[in-house]
Design goal:
- The chain is mostly helical and 57 residues long.
- Helix content is 74%, strand content 0%.
- The mean pLDDT is 91.
């Protein structure tokens, strides 16, 4: 997850340079999902060590 975000961002950059809007959107979507997963993992670790309380949905 954390490793794929930079690769997806680079892929989006390359698609953008070629004028491929669809490919850029797909790569940005993948990057966005990776970043969200990283942030969720950081939050979960903070909950485990007591720095944050678990959020209620």
């Amino acid at each position: 997850m954390a490793v794929t975000a930079p690769a997806d961002m680079f892929s989006a950059h390359l698609h953008s340079q070629r004028g491929d809007a669809g490919g850029t959107r797909r790569a940005l979507g993948r990057a966005e999902v990776s970043v969200i997963q990283v942030l969720q993992g950081l939050h979960d670790l903070r909950v485990v060590i007591g720095d944050m309380e678990e959020e209620e949905e």
